[in-house]
């Protein structure tokens, strides 16, 4: 800690936007008193038991668990596999997989077989090999579904709703998955091939997401540092700094004083 205390983890504008957005989420969908099942979801078997080895069944089982943990188990949905990311061969024996081939997920409102409205959610099948990214995708798309029921515009308006959607996934308890999946780079090699895979998933930055964890877990009356053992090491360090700043600055009171009509 410096002489002047912990440093604000985000720019002034992003910090104020996060506080205003959490106030909006609380006003629209309530806090822990209204959603007592809200928890910090961990990447453990307690929250995600072993699944089927068959791809479609595996995806459906993970999706159903994310819905349950989000308190949305009864909301009408349909899960479909979308387009998979493809490798780009940039030279003989060298491949590159990047983020631009196919989206991680998609959310659409459709009519069901009897005319009722439901959410159609599509996922990138490549993410079946990375359950943490798949869970982050499902949390993000279900956050779209929740936000579609809002009675007012989010801070910043619907033009930046994807940023608010990431924040909503943290509000639903999936901050660890969102932060760990925000940026991935992997290399692989074999006797005849080498390659790299990089992916930017979601819309908030890694630091923005761990700051959101620090804010929301504090508002929920939980210790944000409970997330640290499950985060990538550099994110755990960022979480510690963000938590120190949140605790020093009485964030709950600051949020309570926000006037959303003035934001």
Describe the structure.
Helix content is 40%, strand content 16%. It is α/β, with parallel strands linked by helices. It has one domain. A hairpin with a 4-residue loop joins strand 6 and strand 7. Helix 5 (175-181) packs antiparallel against helix 6 (206-219) and helix 6 crosses helix 7. The longest helix has 18 residues, at 12-29. It is globular and about 55 Å long. The two termini are 31 Å apart.
The end-to-end span amounts to: 31 Å
How much is the average pLDDT?
86
Number of strands: 7
The major beta sheet can be summarized as: 4 strands, mixed
Q: Strands of the biggest beta sheet: in what spatial order?
A: 2-3-7-6
Oligomeric grouping of the chains: single chain
The computed structural class is alpha/beta
Number of H/I helices: 8
**Which stretches are poorly predicted, pLDDT < 50 over at least 5 residues?**
88-102
Computed Rg: 19 Å
In short:
The protein is of the alpha/beta class and 263 residues long. It has helices spanning 12-29, 55-69, 131-147, 161-171, 175-181, 206-219, 233-248, 251-256; strands at residues 77-81, 88-91, 94-97, 105-111, 117-123, 183-189, 194-200. α3 crosses α5 (175-181).
Q: What is this structure's SSE topology?
A:
Elements: H1 12-29, H2 55-69, E1 77-81, E2 88-91, E3 94-97, E4 105-111, E5 117-123, H3 131-147, H4 161-171, H5 175-181, E6 183-189, E7 194-200, H6 206-219, H7 233-248, H8 251-256
Parallel strand pairs: 1-5, 3-7
Antiparallel strand pairs: 2-3, 4-5, 6-7
Helix pairs in contact: 1-4, 1-6, 2-3, 3-4, 3-5, 4-6, 5-6, 6-7
């Amino acid at each position: 800690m410096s002489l002047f205390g912990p440093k604000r983890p985000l720019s002034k504008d992003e910090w104020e936007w996060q506080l205003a957005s959490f106030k909006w989420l609380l006003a629209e969908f309530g806090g822990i008193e209204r959603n007592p099942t809200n928890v910090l979801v961990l990447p453990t078997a307690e929250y995600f038991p072993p699944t089927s080895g068959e791809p479609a069944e595996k995806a459906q089982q993970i999706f159903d668990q994310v819905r349950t943990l989000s308190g949305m188990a009864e909301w009408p949905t349909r899960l479909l596999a979308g387009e998979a990311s493809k490798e780009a061969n940039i030279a003989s024996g060298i491949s590159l997989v990047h983020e631009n081939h196919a989206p991680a997920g998609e959310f659409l409102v459709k009519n069901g077989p009897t005319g009722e409205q439901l959410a159609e959610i599509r996922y990138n099948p490549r993410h079946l090999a990375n359950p943490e990214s798949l869970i982050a995708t499902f949390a993000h798309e279900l956050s779209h579904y929740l936000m579609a029921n809002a009675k007012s515009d989010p801070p910043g308006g619907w033009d930046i709703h994807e940023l608010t959607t990431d924040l909503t996934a943290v509000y639903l308890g999936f901050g660890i998955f969102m932060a760990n999946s925000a940026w991935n780079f992997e290399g692989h090699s074999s006797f005849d091939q080498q390659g790299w895979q990089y992916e930017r998933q979601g819309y908030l930055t890694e630091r923005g997401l761990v700051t959101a964890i620090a804010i929301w877990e504090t508002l929920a009356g939980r210790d944000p540092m409970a997330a640290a053992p499950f985060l990538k090491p550099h994110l755990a360090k960022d979480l510690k700094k963000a938590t120190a700043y949140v605790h020093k600055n009485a964030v709950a009171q600051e949020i309570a004083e926000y006037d959303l009509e003035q934001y």
